[in-house]
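User: Please predict the structure of the protein below. I'd like the answer in C-alpha coordinate form so I can feed it into my own downstream comparison script.

Assistant: Understood. Taking the following sequence of 266 residues as input:
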Amino acid sequence: MTESRLTRIALRLVTVAVLLFIYVPLVVIAIYAFNPTIAQTWPPSGFTLKWFTEAAANPNVLGAFASSILAAAGATSIALVLGTLAALGVQRFAFFGRETVSFLFVLPIALPGVVTGIALSATFQTLDVRFGLATVVVGHATFCVVVAYNNVLARLRRTPRSAEEASADLGADTWQTFRRVTLPAIRTALLAGGLLAFALSFDEIIVTNFTAGPGTQTIPLFIFRSIQRPNELPVVNVVAVVLILLSIVPVYLAQRIGGDATGITR
Protein backbone atom coordinates (compact mmCIF):
# COMPACT_ATOMS: atom_id res chain seq x y z
CA MET A 1 0.00 0.00 0.00
CA THR A 2 1.30 3.44 -0.96
CA GLU A 3 0.39 6.31 1.37
CA SER A 4 -0.54 9.70 0.03
CA ARG A 5 1.77 12.65 0.52
CA LEU A 6 -0.60 14.14 3.11
CA THR A 7 -0.62 10.87 5.07
CA ARG A 8 3.18 10.69 5.10
CA ILE A 9 3.43 14.27 6.36
CA ALA A 10 0.82 13.59 9.07
CA LEU A 11 2.65 10.47 10.23
CA ARG A 12 5.95 12.34 10.42
CA LEU A 13 4.36 15.15 12.43
CA VAL A 14 2.80 12.67 14.84
CA THR A 15 6.13 10.88 15.22
CA VAL A 16 7.91 14.16 15.99
CA ALA A 17 5.17 15.13 18.47
CA VAL A 18 5.47 11.81 20.32
CA LEU A 19 9.26 12.05 20.49
CA LEU A 20 9.01 15.61 21.82
CA PHE A 21 6.46 14.48 24.41
CA ILE A 22 8.88 11.79 25.63
CA TYR A 23 12.21 13.58 25.44
CA VAL A 24 11.57 17.27 26.16
CA PRO A 25 11.41 16.65 29.96
CA LEU A 26 14.76 14.83 29.75
CA VAL A 27 16.29 17.75 27.86
CA VAL A 28 14.96 20.19 30.47
CA ILE A 29 16.52 18.26 33.37
CA ALA A 30 19.78 18.05 31.43
CA ILE A 31 19.81 21.84 30.95
CA TYR A 32 19.17 22.42 34.65
CA ALA A 33 22.20 20.25 35.47
CA PHE A 34 24.38 23.03 34.01
CA ASN A 35 22.50 25.87 35.72
CA PRO A 36 24.89 27.88 37.97
CA THR A 37 22.17 28.70 40.54
CA ILE A 38 20.33 26.40 42.93
CA ALA A 39 16.93 27.75 41.91
CA GLN A 40 15.42 26.12 38.81
CA THR A 41 14.50 29.26 36.94
CA TRP A 42 13.89 29.43 33.20
CA PRO A 43 15.85 30.32 31.24
CA PRO A 44 19.02 29.35 33.14
CA SER A 45 21.21 32.27 34.12
CA GLY A 46 24.40 30.74 32.77
CA PHE A 47 26.50 27.62 32.33
CA THR A 48 28.61 25.72 34.86
CA LEU A 49 30.15 22.31 35.51
CA LYS A 50 30.56 22.76 39.25
CA TRP A 51 27.59 20.55 40.11
CA PHE A 52 29.21 17.66 38.25
CA THR A 53 32.34 18.15 40.37
CA GLU A 54 30.29 18.23 43.56
CA ALA A 55 28.39 15.11 42.57
CA ALA A 56 31.62 13.25 41.79
CA ALA A 57 33.00 14.18 45.23
CA ASN A 58 29.79 13.44 47.15
CA PRO A 59 30.26 10.23 49.21
CA ASN A 60 26.50 9.65 49.34
CA VAL A 61 26.30 9.67 45.54
CA LEU A 62 29.29 7.37 45.15
CA GLY A 63 27.97 4.96 47.78
CA ALA A 64 24.54 4.93 46.19
CA PHE A 65 26.05 4.19 42.77
CA ALA A 66 28.06 1.32 44.21
CA SER A 67 24.98 -0.12 45.93
CA SER A 68 22.93 0.16 42.74
CA ILE A 69 25.60 -1.61 40.70
CA LEU A 70 25.93 -4.43 43.25
CA ALA A 71 22.17 -4.85 43.53
CA ALA A 72 21.69 -4.86 39.76
CA ALA A 73 24.56 -7.31 39.23
CA GLY A 74 23.23 -9.67 41.89
CA ALA A 75 19.64 -9.52 40.68
CA THR A 76 20.73 -10.01 37.06
CA SER A 77 22.82 -13.06 37.95
CA ILE A 78 19.93 -14.70 39.82
CA ALA A 79 17.47 -13.78 37.06
CA LEU A 80 19.64 -15.26 34.30
CA VAL A 81 20.06 -18.59 36.10
CA LEU A 82 16.43 -18.98 37.15
CA GLY A 83 14.99 -17.53 33.95
CA THR A 84 17.10 -19.78 31.74
CA LEU A 85 16.24 -22.92 33.70
CA ALA A 86 12.55 -22.03 33.66
CA ALA A 87 12.58 -21.30 29.91
CA LEU A 88 14.30 -24.62 29.18
CA GLY A 89 11.80 -26.49 31.31
CA VAL A 90 8.76 -24.83 29.76
CA GLN A 91 9.95 -24.97 26.15
CA ARG A 92 11.73 -28.32 26.01
CA PHE A 93 9.28 -30.45 28.05
CA ALA A 94 5.56 -31.06 27.70
CA PHE A 95 3.65 -31.40 30.97
CA PHE A 96 0.24 -30.63 32.43
CA GLY A 97 -0.19 -26.95 33.29
CA ARG A 98 2.73 -25.74 31.19
CA GLU A 99 0.90 -22.64 29.99
CA THR A 100 -0.14 -21.83 33.54
CA VAL A 101 3.45 -22.10 34.71
CA SER A 102 4.55 -19.80 31.88
CA PHE A 103 1.87 -17.28 32.87
CA LEU A 104 2.99 -17.36 36.50
CA PHE A 105 6.57 -16.61 35.47
CA VAL A 106 5.48 -13.55 33.50
CA LEU A 107 2.94 -12.28 36.07
CA PRO A 108 5.41 -10.49 38.43
CA ILE A 109 6.30 -7.90 35.79
CA ALA A 110 2.62 -6.94 35.50
CA LEU A 111 2.01 -6.58 39.23
CA PRO A 112 2.17 -3.04 40.65
CA GLY A 113 5.55 -2.44 42.23
CA VAL A 114 3.95 -1.35 45.49
CA VAL A 115 2.18 -4.71 45.76
CA THR A 116 5.41 -6.59 45.15
CA GLY A 117 7.23 -4.39 47.64
CA ILE A 118 4.62 -4.87 50.39
CA ALA A 119 4.53 -8.63 49.81
CA LEU A 120 8.31 -8.95 49.98
CA SER A 121 8.56 -6.72 53.04
CA ALA A 122 5.94 -8.76 54.88
CA THR A 123 7.65 -12.02 53.90
CA PHE A 124 11.08 -10.83 55.07
CA GLN A 125 9.61 -9.67 58.37
CA THR A 126 7.80 -12.97 58.86
CA LEU A 127 11.02 -14.89 58.23
CA ASP A 128 12.94 -12.47 60.47
CA VAL A 129 15.30 -11.56 57.63
CA ARG A 130 17.43 -8.47 58.18
CA PHE A 131 16.79 -5.78 55.57
CA GLY A 132 19.78 -4.69 53.53
CA LEU A 133 21.39 -5.02 50.13
CA ALA A 134 20.68 -8.77 50.01
CA THR A 135 16.92 -8.21 50.38
CA VAL A 136 17.08 -5.58 47.63
CA VAL A 137 18.78 -8.11 45.34
CA VAL A 138 16.10 -10.72 46.04
CA GLY A 139 13.35 -8.16 45.50
CA HIS A 140 14.76 -7.04 42.16
CA ALA A 141 15.32 -10.63 41.02
CA THR A 142 11.59 -11.37 41.31
CA PHE A 143 10.81 -9.15 38.32
CA CYS A 144 14.16 -9.29 36.51
CA VAL A 145 13.70 -13.04 36.07
CA VAL A 146 10.78 -12.28 33.76
CA VAL A 147 13.06 -10.42 31.33
CA ALA A 148 15.57 -13.27 31.23
CA TYR A 149 12.80 -15.85 30.92
CA ASN A 150 11.10 -14.08 28.01
CA ASN A 151 14.33 -13.54 26.09
CA VAL A 152 15.51 -17.13 26.42
CA LEU A 153 12.05 -18.56 25.74
CA ALA A 154 11.70 -16.51 22.56
CA ARG A 155 15.08 -17.72 21.33
CA LEU A 156 14.37 -21.38 22.17
CA ARG A 157 11.09 -21.25 20.26
CA ARG A 158 12.99 -20.18 17.14
CA THR A 159 15.82 -22.66 17.59
CA PRO A 160 15.23 -26.12 16.07
CA ARG A 161 15.97 -29.10 18.29
CA SER A 162 17.69 -31.05 15.53
CA ALA A 163 21.19 -30.00 16.68
CA GLU A 164 20.45 -31.07 20.26
CA GLU A 165 19.03 -34.39 19.07
CA ALA A 166 22.08 -34.97 16.88
CA SER A 167 24.34 -34.25 19.84
CA ALA A 168 22.48 -36.80 21.95
CA ASP A 169 22.64 -39.37 19.12
CA LEU A 170 26.41 -38.92 18.99
CA GLY A 171 26.73 -39.85 22.64
CA ALA A 172 26.85 -36.46 24.38
CA ASP A 173 25.19 -36.27 27.78
CA THR A 174 22.73 -33.54 28.81
CA TRP A 175 25.40 -31.21 30.18
CA GLN A 176 27.64 -31.57 27.13
CA THR A 177 24.72 -30.88 24.82
CA PHE A 178 23.75 -27.80 26.79
CA ARG A 179 27.31 -26.45 26.92
CA ARG A 180 28.21 -27.09 23.27
CA VAL A 181 24.86 -26.72 21.48
CA THR A 182 22.12 -25.04 23.50
CA LEU A 183 24.19 -22.38 25.24
CA PRO A 184 25.79 -21.03 22.04
CA ALA A 185 22.31 -20.86 20.48
CA ILE A 186 20.87 -18.75 23.32
CA ARG A 187 24.04 -16.80 24.12
CA THR A 188 22.93 -13.49 22.60
CA ALA A 189 19.47 -13.82 24.16
CA LEU A 190 21.12 -14.26 27.55
CA LEU A 191 23.29 -11.20 26.99
CA ALA A 192 20.33 -9.08 25.87
CA GLY A 193 18.20 -10.27 28.78
CA GLY A 194 21.02 -9.60 31.20
CA LEU A 195 21.50 -6.05 29.93
CA LEU A 196 17.79 -5.29 30.17
CA ALA A 197 17.53 -6.86 33.62
CA PHE A 198 20.53 -4.83 34.82
CA ALA A 199 18.99 -1.58 33.54
CA LEU A 200 15.62 -2.46 35.07
CA SER A 201 17.16 -3.21 38.46
CA PHE A 202 19.51 -0.22 38.45
CA ASP A 203 16.63 2.27 38.11
CA GLU A 204 14.08 0.54 40.36
CA ILE A 205 12.74 2.51 43.33
CA ILE A 206 9.35 1.18 44.49
CA VAL A 207 10.40 -2.35 45.46
CA THR A 208 13.73 -0.98 46.68
CA ASN A 209 11.96 1.38 49.05
CA PHE A 210 10.22 -1.56 50.74
CA THR A 211 13.18 -3.95 50.83
CA ALA A 212 16.17 -1.71 51.62
CA GLY A 213 17.38 -1.43 55.20
CA PRO A 214 18.02 1.88 57.00
CA GLY A 215 21.68 1.93 55.93
CA THR A 216 21.09 0.87 52.32
CA GLN A 217 20.73 3.56 49.67
CA THR A 218 20.66 3.10 45.93
CA ILE A 219 20.74 5.87 43.35
CA PRO A 220 16.93 6.00 42.89
CA LEU A 221 16.50 6.20 46.68
CA PHE A 222 19.13 8.95 46.84
CA ILE A 223 17.25 10.96 44.21
CA PHE A 224 13.88 10.39 45.89
CA ARG A 225 15.14 11.51 49.30
CA SER A 226 17.33 14.38 48.08
CA ILE A 227 14.88 15.98 45.68
CA GLN A 228 12.92 17.31 48.65
CA ARG A 229 15.97 19.29 49.82
CA PRO A 230 16.44 22.44 47.67
CA ASN A 231 20.18 22.67 48.40
CA GLU A 232 20.77 19.21 46.90
CA LEU A 233 18.59 19.71 43.82
CA PRO A 234 21.48 20.63 41.46
CA VAL A 235 23.34 17.43 42.40
CA VAL A 236 20.14 15.46 41.84
CA ASN A 237 19.89 16.96 38.35
CA VAL A 238 23.46 15.86 37.60
CA VAL A 239 22.79 12.33 38.86
CA ALA A 240 19.65 12.20 36.71
CA VAL A 241 21.65 13.17 33.61
CA VAL A 242 24.26 10.51 34.34
CA LEU A 243 21.50 7.93 34.80
CA ILE A 244 19.99 8.87 31.44
CA LEU A 245 23.33 8.39 29.73
CA LEU A 246 24.02 5.11 31.54
CA SER A 247 20.56 3.76 30.73
CA ILE A 248 21.05 4.31 27.01
CA VAL A 249 23.97 1.88 26.82
CA PRO A 250 22.39 -1.39 28.06
CA VAL A 251 19.07 -0.75 26.30
CA TYR A 252 20.79 0.02 22.99
CA LEU A 253 23.09 -2.99 23.26
CA ALA A 254 20.20 -5.25 24.23
CA GLN A 255 18.22 -4.08 21.21
CA ARG A 256 21.16 -4.63 18.88
CA ILE A 257 22.15 -7.99 20.35
CA GLY A 258 18.74 -9.43 21.17
CA GLY A 259 17.54 -9.79 17.60
CA ASP A 260 14.36 -11.83 17.86
CA ALA A 261 14.32 -11.92 21.66
CA THR A 262 11.53 -9.96 23.28
CA GLY A 263 12.10 -8.59 26.74
CA ILE A 264 9.33 -6.94 28.76
CA THR A 265 10.18 -3.94 30.91
CA ARG A 266 8.34 -2.35 33.72
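That's the full C-alpha coordinate string. Residues 260-266 have pLDDT under 50 and may be disordered.
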